[in-house]
Records
---
Amino acid sequence: MSATPPAVDAGTATMISLIGSLADNKGALGRRYGEWAVSAPTIESAVAAAAMAQDELGHARSTYPVLAKLGVEREDEGLDAGAPMPVIARELPDWASFIAANLVVDGILTTFVATARDSSIEPLAQRARKILQEEGAHRVHAEAWLRRICRTGGGDLELLRQRIEEMWSQAARWPGPDDDPGYREAIERGMVSEGPAAIRDRVRRWLVASLETHDAAVTLEEPAEWSAWDPERRQ
Amino acid sequence: MSREHETVWEVFARKAYEEPLHHVGTVTEDDEDLALLSARAIYDEQPWIHMIIVPRQAIREAIRA
């Protein structure tokens, strides 16, 4: 596990938590994508799932070393590292869950990464720019499958809407409360450009607009209850 | 799942601009964006500098022996 140095400021502590958890969640997402590389609905989507798995596992592997720049040495714990969101901690039960994870979990994590594109933590900024290049294809995949399922409609669309809302209930909490003092300090020091509410808002607007184009709707509420939120696990 | 009504795309690629495009295979996808994504993911064994996809139904035969 990570070992937070005994005396770091609130902004650095928040970035340590965000970067470590980003890598944990990307590792888990890579595993989940990889499991569908042998059981996706078509050979084309199986190959795309394998390519996306490779990307996510690479992002996880290249993100952990950024922690060292913040004074945290973290041992390589393999594929089951850390505490990813429970919705991606185990095998995804259906293809709708795969697409929902692609839309929502990947969407939240990538939107966070976009806020670090010009980070004052230079190794993070470098990783962010490389990750964003590769994540463009993940977004194309998510949007194309959303269109396809919306066109099919019926039970497939209903299941996807349900899975999107399930994923949102956890992924939306990942950035944390908007009034977190550590996050505010990280923004003030240029470590990231935007806070938790802005990340949620960007992803929510994209998802709602994408579904509305096909006369479908989802309810993506702003998380309200933070008393039990763990800033280290980001859950 | 039946795919007989989906669009088949012919995939062509080249490794140098002075080379002609070579036929490297096909992908089956109705969605154009997914077809492009699939072509790049499936036929990535060579360091291509250029890849195109063409819907099979857009091809016209000039000679048929």
---
Amino acid sequence: MQQTSLAFRRKKSIAVASTVFLFPALLVIAIFIIYPIIDSFATSAYDWNGITDKLFVGFGNWKEMFHDKVFWKAFGNNLIVMVLSICIQMPIGIALATWLDKVGRKGNVAKVIWFIPMLMSSVAIGYLFRYALDANTGFVTGLSQLFGGGRVDLLGNPGKVLLTCIFIISWQFTPFYMVYYLAGYSGLSEDVKEAAMIDGATERQYFWRVALPLLKPTIKSAVILSMVGSLKYFDLVYVLTKGGPSHASELMATYMYSMAFESHRNGYASTLACGMFILISLIAIVTMRLLNRKED
Amino acid sequence: MNRKAISAVLSGTMLLSLMAGSMTTVQAAGKTKLTLWHIQTGEMANVIQGSVDRFMEANPDYDVEVVQKQNDTFKTDVSLAAQAGTLPDIFITWGGQTMYDYADQGLIADLTEYMNKDNYKDQFVDAGIAQCTYKDKIWAAPVENISVAGIFYNKDVFDKYNLEEPKTLDDLEKICDTLVENGVAPFALANATKWTGSMFFQYLATRYGGLEPFADAAAGKGSFENDAFEFAGTKIQDWVDKGYFCDGFNGMDDDSGQARALFYTGSAAMDLMGSWFTMTIAGENKQFLDDGKLGFFPFPEIPDSKADQSLCLGTIGDNLYVVSNKCADKEAAFKVIQSLLDDEAVKERTDLAKIIPLKSFKTSDPVVQEVLDTISKAKGIQLWYDQYLPSEVAEVHKTTSQEIFGKTITPAEADKELQDAMTAYLSKKGTASTEAESAETEA
């Protein structure tokens, strides 16, 4: 009798303590995350420029979004960024990490140099490449002219601008995945490698048959990270091109930003934000399901 | 139990005090506090602070706080402050639809009475007052700057190829052809910024059709699917084909000055820009000005056009200072605005190459004088489309104009897209105002 009541009291006091300790965090999350999301959905039913009265339009904004070519183009661009980011960044990241893991301390200098892009802010990288890719005075044009070619316009050309952005994004984020996989490698026990070597595995066999399967959980979370990151990507593209020219490098987030803070269509921008929220959540959930199923 | 209660109370108070901490402001005893938001930078911010300091010296009962805000996010800041009820007593607007919205929403005060007092408004250029007027009331004071667009050119380049300032569009095209033949880009253009290229569109349309096509289209009486806009778009694409603009223009941003670098070095000969360009150069490449390399001419004319060819594109006043309707002491707030143009300030502003919209304004700078001559000859001013139009339509204009330059769209398609946006906006506004009216009648 006394025991149960003691257990009960203990449970109760843990419940009270956890509530008290969690309360500040929950409050912050409620104010800064949950409330804005709900409010965005509410605002998406209005037409509103921030100054004049809100005009209720029901699902008008949602209908507009479904027919908005620019939004779907932006979504398509996001998907391209997502797929190419994964295809470019993951293999290079793994390759660099594998090499660094193999050479150990001797690779420290390379490790630091390769990590530098990750240390720069996206805005600085944006400006750096804006000048470097300048069609008249930039690095690429200079190189092309050195070999007798013409001027190269990468950021002003609707056909090339998105690929250029993806290249720069990859340049920025590959080091992150390099470090991520390096951490994954350090989680692998030395014994496994020794055992594989004693059993007569070559370096190549060790990598493909042992290390890579063991890195699977790391790869999985890296893919999810990269996916969500590319779907909501904003800063570098905004600094570099503002989504232009002609929406050629428009992403969902840059489009939403320009609707909210340049066109001052706050209601429609909220709709876009909600659309993004739904699309990204869906894609993330589906991918996580798929990845987890394969494991079974 | 007790201890728990105490800790709960303590953590509660801590939270409350955290939240309250940001809300308390200390009020100087017995002084009326006024707040002013402006978006000037560099030396100009000091000029404004100086004006306000002189005001406070003369009126010790007032404490004026000057806040320097960011240009690009300013409209958003104002709308956020309006919702939160924390609008500053004095702030700026660029006029056009945004100012009309402020007035219709009762956010800003009617300044007619103060502007008429001692005929204060007569000191300003008429076009400036016209820009501050809406529904026959004056809502703002045009303080900062007269900015009209015109073509600035590098005199060295013109001398080298024996070129003279063009009078007509044909002359201009001949000059451009000569420059292209010699491997010089006729125009430096950074069009990732969009409004830079849009000025070509606006000027061409204004030269072709005058003020009416735009005013009618914006008011819903006309349409953007009109000869004037079609002409502008077609001309631009023709010029793009002929290579009149520097390479990669749609990828360059005005803020990073890449296009200006071409202009300074003579790789590009001309730049269609607002008259603030002299100030930009003074800050960026003073040597260029000192060597007398900078020339200016108004946008060339179309001789056989019916439209008035003296029209200028730009703004008289640039930043119009308004007083919040919630301001407790509007008269004092207006006096603060007046202090921004007191004798001392006028002198300082002139030294900084500002073109003050006062009738009495004089300058010693030859390029500024040329700009002034152009303005004094102008029979009217076309306010920048992107300030005149409501933001959502303005953005469509800027984007379609960039697409015209990029040739990803035909001029007719661009005009249609713009007209669709305008129609959508007007019909929404129509519903809003009928709803408001019916609500009023119900009440």
